Amino acid sequence: MSFFISQAHAQAAGPAGAPPGGELFQIGFLVLMFVLFWFLAIRPQRKRQKEHSDMVAALAKGDEVVTVSGILGKIAKLDDDYLVLQVSDTVELKFQRSAVHAVLPKGTIKAI
């Protein structure tokens, strides 16, 4: 074991033959990777979140929607955080507004 320790002490201080500016290249590479990650992952996700929040804010009584669980219904009542979906003539379900996945064109539920 002492054989390895003596070799470690005998090595020269600093990298031998390393090109100058290597640290700058590493920093540039990290910045490039962050920018690439930003455009491929973070930016599209924020765009989808903004579109969804705009859609949820624009909900109105009578809109036909589909929830994230796949339930189709017509909005019967709206509150600040909740909405009531009329699923059939006698069934009404209460959901959070954020549970709405998409707004359907008028008449979609009757066509199904």
Q: Strand pairing plus helix content: what structural class?
A: alpha+beta
Pick out the low-confidence regions: none
CATH architecture of the largest domain: Roll
- First-to-last CA distance: 77 Å
- As for the CATH topology of the largest domain, it is SH3 type barrels
Along the chain, the helix and strand elements come as HHEEEEEH
Give a written overview of the molecule.
The chain is α+β, with helices and mostly antiparallel strands. The protein folds into 2 domains: 22-58; 60-111, Roll (SH3 type barrels), CATH 2.30.30. The chain contains 3 helices and 5 strands; from the N terminus they run H-H-E-E-E-E-E-H. The chain has helices at 2-10, 22-57, 108-111; strands at 64-67, 72-78, 82-86, 92-96, 100-104. The chain has a 5-stranded antiparallel sheet with strand order 4-3-2-1-5. Strand 3 (82-86) and strand 4 form a beta hairpin. The chain starts with a helix and ends with a helix.
